[in-house]
Specification:
2 copies of one chain form a homodimer. The first copy, chain A, is mostly helical. The first copy, chain A, has 9 helices and 2 strands; from the N terminus they run ααββααααααα. Chain A has a two-stranded antiparallel ribbon. In chain A, a hairpin with a 2-residue loop joins strand 1 and strand 2. In chain A, helix 4 runs antiparallel to helix 5 and helix 5 packs across helix 9. The radius of gyration of chain A is 23 Å and the shape is elongated.
Chain lengths: ~230, ~230
């Protein structure tokens, strides 16, 4: 198919497809004439993967490119590629809060205590540390004066146990008999889509819990006088 | 303090603070002279809240403004404001996949089946539907030909049960005796920071599960010949 056909098949505009081609996220089609190329199902699948990373996973184009490189690189094992992809999925941000180093040490103790097989420099450690710093700074757990000492990571141990159980279930879905790039695609997309699903379920549950706790007291309704 | 002091206290540049002021995210300081104003602790706290929304929650400035409006608006109850904030926290994106309507209906059945007190038009329903569409399209659960029929939401029921339990625990931390704006701040920041924490813990667990499943087989190491 021509690029217009690829656009129709994926719902991505031609301009965006050309951008993906220029940035190397999408492999070139087979040239059929000057300024004309032929695209196939491998392109459709790749465009869908890019959309999953960028729209569902909200990755930057540069981070999506790092994930795609890990998907494509046959030199590294599935597990190593998974690590690269995981690192690329952690948002970059300033980590200038003086508590960050303490929070990171707390995360490392959590990893060690729960005997998690996690690379010592895994970026995701910073993500958990970010959350710890914010929970501490806003005193979300109501510790009062303790809010300048980073929260104790033991708080999360029961969640870690549950998450490990769930993760072994999820990783079990990765097909063993298929091509490496398909395995990687399922792993990466599964990571992102399950994360969005779990976050959405948590938010549904929070709305439910908020309704149960706060909805009994109606607010003043100055707007709603008789029509 | 002057705006330079506010910048020093929060780690946010003066240019960014002026941007927050222009966009109405930050309330003006008390004018002390032409082009000079005085800022206090309420500004420091508000800037920290904006950073939590934008950096940890990765909200757009427009969505952060909607959340802040809900935090500030005394006319609505805590629970209603929580709903507004929840809606603003769902990323905007194209939902042009023909499966999306089916996925949304599946989400609504899940809400009803689990008797969740969720507004009928809550935006977060779309977030779970997004994940369902992606899991279906990439056939993450290995259903083969079934990958054009949206996944059965029963899959998530056990997660919903666990999430409700955890949410009641989290909502229990919202202080009852404090000012409304403080309660809202804790609720909003708690929602975001717990979500990041849970996502990070899930990723740590996935890396662990991947190591257990895939790390036994080393890849070919063409690069690593003897030095």
């Amino acid at each position: 198919m021509r690029i217009a056909g690829l656009s129709a098949a994926t719902g991505v505009s031609v301009a965006t497809l050309k951008y993906y081609l220029r940035e190397g996220l999408l492999h070139p089609g087979v040239a059929t004439a000057v300024n004309q190329a032929d695209y196939d199902d491998t392109h459709v699948r790749r465009v869908r993967l890019i959309r999953a990373l960028v729209e569902l996973g909200r990755l930057s184009i540069a981070d999506a490119a790092r994930v795609l490189h890990a998907v494509d690189d046959d030199e590294v094992s599935i597990h190593e590629a998974f690590g690269v992809a995981q690192d690329a999925m952690v948002p970059h941000r300033d980590r200038d809060d003086p508590l960050h180093a303490d929070a990171l040490a707390e995360v490392d103790r959590l990893v060690e205590r729960n005997q998690l097989l996690v690379r010592p420099n895994a970026e995701v450690r910073h993500m958990l540390a970010d959350a710890l710093v914010t929970l501490t700074r806003f005193d979300v757990l109501g510790q009062g004066d303790a809010s300048t000492t980073v929260l104790d990571g033991h708080l999360f141990d029961s969640y870690v146990t549950a998450a490990v159980e769930s993760a072994e279930f999820e990783i079990g879905y990765v097909p063993q008999h298929e091509e490496r790039s398909d395995q990687m695609t399922v792993t990466v997309v599964g990571t992102i889509a399950w994360e969005v699903a779990m976050a959405a379920i948590r938010r549904l549950a929070l709305e439910h819990a908020s309704a149960r706790r706060f909805d009994a007291v109606p607010p003043p309704r100055r707007q709603r006088v008789a029509k």
